Amino acid sequence: MIAAADSLRLGVALEQEGRTLEACSQYLHAMRVDPTHPLAQYRACRLLARLAEIPEQFLTRRTLEPRAERSQWKPRISVVICSIDPGKFARVSSGYEHLLEGYPHEIVGIHDARSMCEGYNRGFAQTTGEIVIFSHDDIEIVSAGFAEKLAGLFAQHDIIGVAGASGFPDNGLWAHPRSPYAHGVVAHRAPGEEDYATYVFGVGGALDEGMQVLDGVFFAARRRVVEAIGFDARTFDGFHFYDIDFTYRAFLAGFRIAVSNEMIIVHQSRGKFGDEWRRYADLFLAKHSGAKPHSPPTHRFWHANIVRLGTTEQVVEFARLLVATADAARNASQEAGM
Predict the structure, then answer these.
(1) What's the N-to-C CA distance of the chain in angstroms?
(2) For residues 78 and 60, what is the distance between their CA atoms, to the nearest angstrom?
(3) What are the beta bridge partners of residue 207?
(4) Quick one: which of 132, 103, 319, 100 has its CA closest to 218?
(5) How far is it, in rounded angstroms, from Cα 259 to Cα 213?
(6) Which site among 2, 91, 147, 217 is 20 to 30 Å from 188 CA-CA?
(7) What's the 3-state SS for 276-333?
(8) Helix intervals (H) in the chain
């Protein structure tokens, strides 16, 4: 087998000659040999982003479609959104109405939440759905087949999100760039920005299982999970760690948690990690006695990269390429007995 360093050098030479597809193939080979090779990761990720921008070069191009078996189950889906901004609430509600067309659904808005936990507990009490989505008010879901995909995922899982971790470092920041536990793909585009900063936290395939925590930008749970776990409004009386505490307690209770790398969202803001965040991080770590990971890091092929793309279509295509190459690498490793 060709060494990772040799494939990397060949890939650089091919890229300099403008032979993009061949260069990408060499970078991917280097990553199959050494999945954590940082330079191969960096260069390959950026080439996939370029391919997403010029998709006619990819002869097998297709849109990002749901991979789960087509589900005949059409559960009632509830969406709970805490929002103090009428414009944001109207936009995100309109988006969900479109995404959930053909499925029985309802949207519950809480416009005077004293905290995320308090608001979500109050909102959940008003819902009737078998699946309950907890969503920020400043997101747009841009991937195809959202409702069908979501219903299919709940055949074998209890909570689904778009970003999270199978463990976290001592400081409580699950998405630390050097964390070996982070998973998911999320695009960010704040008001006034021209492009989409697409964060690749970690991608092991279409679905990354074995998560312990999920980020609260978007996650969905079976009704019975929320009834059993609830949100700890006494401890988390602000707007941080409501999500991490809820999903971590669900993990400890034995519920199955996963990250979908095919449900792609655009978040119109970025997280704040100041003194208030630190205070709730300390409360979380004290409550859970340090919250050490309970298992080895789960498999990831892509991780710790950020690329900038010009359109939502390019973001979706980029995510599809990440998933496709991760699936191919995992299949190759299994066939080789690695």
Answers:
(1) 13
(2) 36
(3) 260
(4) 132
(5) 10
(6) 147
(7) HHHHHHHHHHHHCCCCCCCCCCCCCCEEEEEEEECCHHHHHHHHHHHHHHHHHHHHHH
(8) 4-16, 20-33, 38-53, 86-99, 116-124, 146-153, 223-229, 242-252, 275-287, 312-335
Rounded Cα gap, residues 187 and 170, in angstroms:
26
Contacts of 274 (CB under 8 A, 6+ apart): none
pLDDT at 279: 94
Contact (Cβ atoms closer than 8 angstroms) between residue 161 and residue 256? no
Distance CA 221, CA 206 (A): 19
The pTM is what?
0.90
What Rg, from alpha-carbon coordinates, does the chain have?
A: 20
The pLDDT averaged over each successive group of 10 residues in the chain (338 residues) is 85 90 84 79 87 61 45 90 98 98 97 98 98 98 94 95 87 76 94 92 92 96 98 97 96 96 93 87 87 73 88 92 82 59
Domain 77-287 has CATH 3.90.550.10: yes
Give the HSE-up count for residue 54: Cα atoms under 13 Å, Cβ half-sphere. Answer: 7
* Residue 192: CA count within 13 A, CB half-sphere: 1
| pLDDT at residue 69, as a whole number | 47
Q: Where are the domains of the chain?
A: 4-61+308-335, 77-287
pLDDT at 73: 84
Please provide residue 178's backbone torsions phi and psi, each rounded to the nearest 5 degrees: -100, 5
Q: What whole-number distance in Å separates Cα of residue 297 and Cα of residue 201?
A: 13
Asked if 214 and 182 count as a contact pair (C-beta separation under 8 A), the reply is no
Closest CA to 195 of 76, 307, 294, 64: 307
CA–CA dist 224, 110 (Å, integer): 21
- For 162, 227, 275, 315, the CA distances from 202, given in Å and listed in that order, are 11, 30, 27, 15
